[in-house]
Design brief:
The chain has 581 residues and is α+β, with helices and mostly antiparallel strands. Helices cover 34% and strands 22% of the residues. Helix 7 (192-202) packs antiparallel against helix 8 (209-217). The N and C termini lie far apart (76 Å). The chain binds adenosine-5'-diphosphate. Adenosine-5'-diphosphate (ADP) binds at residues 134-140, 157-160, 165-167, 281-282, 315-317, 341, 343-344, 347-348, 546-548, 566.
């Protein structure tokens, strides 16, 4: 009885205090793709919960920001924490939002100094698998999944804290001639031979015809695998015609970025029980006395690990984010920004070379014509160019065919006054995509608008004035386009898909520059995805697929051929590595 009354008094005393000590406060920070908005709950002046109400960050790249980093903020009651490399700005967005919430509630957070984010995982120093895959981009995931489905025990090593590589931040489109969508839309006349011809021509006939033929003859079956087995959702009513292609043939994933396929690959890997070891940087290929590759040495947090395998698949991507390496092979590209993921540094090419691999075509480096003039990242919201959007220079004039190859357009832009250009389109073209171009890539569009490199205008003159372009000249350019569109010709630049008249509705105009995007050169492989040595002989046990390889695309890769390269040669690499005894 006595006990009960003491408890009641305590409760009566404590409960109102607790209630009074609980405060909720809202705060905002700026992430990579817009605002990060949180509601933070403070108990007795300490963070007890963070509810993320709004964020537009890449769900895969920033996954750990909203899980591990968030937990670490709560645990340490501090925002003085390290950011995740590969998601630095997203991390800062969350840290700033929480700090802002604390300021709004007049609460002082702990000032513990910069801390390392803690992540617990115990990995054995040496492990044995059948197949070791290096790189968790599109090629690595799909090769690992293929090998696992063939019965092999597989591991994926990824040096970054998140998966996806360049595949994730790409548009995710893939060329499939004679696809079910082409058939549904009544697009006739496409076939593998036509796609092969476009691809070889697009690379100035420097791509290996045998590799190109292997890639494209496996396209249809690969498209069915992506759709049926991997459950990647593609738009059923729309295909892209990228520059250099003679027909609309690129399937577009939901959301028109690499998020959809990488999300599905990642889920499949999880379902199949394939371990994906993050922050695990492969540094050396291990060979036995006979010269066969039998494993990989890798480093994580300063510790060395050994992964033994009957086969090793290199799926390490290109080197577009390595400025020094780009300059070494292409001094003329000095000073260019890059669209590429921060892990795209190409160290694995040196690792392969040390193991005897032959590197080829290293000077074939592609710039993508439409990138953000401030950050260099891909401007996917200006994909309206593929549906009739125009390229305009500072003088208000067209200067190149809008569906030319990436290298041709990039060079043309660099040679315009100021070294930049604009993509111009109106509501009619914007609405050809579903959802419209500026909606499907809304956060990118919002950031560009905020940064003054995108204008949505009610009149053409308003758009011209915003960029200090001669409005009369711009009007004259559009009048000529409309007049030629009505006649069904483009006497000026021979637009291969036909010009689209632009008369009314809102006008959209984005400033644009080229940036380094894809490295066509790399490891020499054959049609079996085997890595070849300096004599052209296969190195036993070693396979490669994706952007780290160097023989397929020639001088210039056509749009949406990368996802095809990745997924076709993954199957071959995965299958062959799984069959090794
Ligand atoms: P692809 O399109 O060929 O799949 P991506 O760029 O999408 O290429 O993916 C390559 C992946 O490989 C990236 O996630 C990158 O961080 C990873 N990677 C590169 N080098 C290494 C390495 N030495 N060890 C582990 N992962 C690596």
């Amino acid at each position: 009885m006595l006990k009960k009354s003491v408890a009641a008094i305590l409760l009566a005393f404590v409960a109102p205090t607790l209630f009074a000590a609980q405060v909720q406060s809202e705060g905002t920070g700026v992430g990579k793709h817009g605002n990060v908005r949180v509601v933070v709950t403070f108990n007795d002046g300490k963070i007890s919960a963070i509810d993320v109400k709004e964020n537009h960050e890449n769900p895969i790249l920033a996954e750990k920001v909203f899980t591990t980093l968030k937990d670490n903020i709560i645990q340490s009651n501090s925002v003085k924490l390290d950011t995740f490399s590969g998601a630095t700005i997203s991390s800062q967005g969350l840290l700033k939002a929480v700090q802002n919430a604390a300021q709004n509630a007049k609460i002082k957070l702990a000032d513990a100094g910069l801390k390392k984010i803690s992540e617990d995982s115990v990995i054995p120093a040496e492990q044995t698998f059948d197949v070791v895959v290096i790189g968790a981009g599109g090629a690595g995931f799909s090769a690992a999944i293929e090998a696992k489905m063939k019965g092999a025990n597989v591991v994926i090593l990824e040096k970054m804290p998140s998966v996806g590589g360049n595949s994730l931040i790409s548009g995710g489109e893939i060329n499939i001639p004679q696809s079910w969508v082409q058939e549904k839309l009544g697009i006739k006349g496409d076939n593998p031979a036509r796609h092969i011809a476009d691809t070889l021509k697009g690379g100035d006939y420097m791509g290996d015809p045998e590799m190109v033929t292997t890639m494209i003859t496996h396209a249809k079956e690969t498209g069915e695998w992506l759709r049926g087995v991997m459950k990647v959702q593609y738009d059923q009513n729309y295909v892209f015609q990228f520059g250099g292609h003679s027909i609309k043939r690129a399937l577009t994933p939901v959301g028109q970025t690499g998020v959809e396929p990488i999300k599905k690959f990642s889920a499949k890997a999880k379902e199949l029980g394939i371990p994906v070891l993050l922050n695990m940087n492969a540094t050396e290929l291990i060979k036995d006395d006979s010269g066969r590759v039998i494993g990989v040495k890798a480093v994580s947090n300063g510790k060395t690990y050994t992964f033994n395998g009957k086969g090793v698949i290199l799926a390490t991507g290109g080197f577009g984010a390595n400025k020094k390496m780009v300059e070494k092979y292409r001094p003329d590209l000095k000073g260019y920004m890059t669209t590429d993921a921060p892990g795209t540094l190409g160290e694995a090419l040196a690792m392969a070379e040390k193991a005897g691999a032959q590197l080829v075509n290293m000077n074939y480096i592609q710039t993508y014509p439409n990138c953000d003039p401030i950050s260099g990242s891909l401007q996917l919201f200006v994909d309206a160019r593929f549906d009739g959007g125009l390229l305009i220079n500072q003088e208000g004039k067209r200067f190149v065919e809008e569906l030319e190859r990436r290298d041709v357009i990039s060079n043309a832009i660099v040679n315009q006054p100021g070294g930049y250009a604009y993509v111009l389109w109106n509501d009619k073209i914007n609405n050809l995509n579903n959802p419209p171009f500026i909606k499907i890539h809304e956060s990118e569009y919002d950031v560009a608008t905020k940064n003054g490199v995108m204008i949505t205008a009610n009149t053409l003159k308003e758009a011209a004035d915003f960029y200090k372009i001669d409005a009369k000249q711009l009007q004259a350019t559009i009048d000529r386009v409309n007049e030629m569109a009505a006649r069904g010709v483009d006497e000026d630049f021979h637009h291969r898909a036909g010009l689209v008249a632009m008369k009314e509705g809102k006008w959209y105009m984005a400033k644009t520059v080229p940036a380094i995007h894809h490295t066509m050169g790399g490891i020499k492989t054959n049609t079996k995805a085997e890595v070849l040595d300096a004599n052209g002989d296969p190195i036993p046990g070693l396979y490669a697929a994706g952007e780290c390889t160097g023989t397929i695309h020639g001088t210039n890769r056509l749009g949406a051929n990368a996802w095809l390269d990745i997924t076709v040669f993954r199957r071959i690499a995965g299958k062959n590595a799984a069959n090794l005894k």
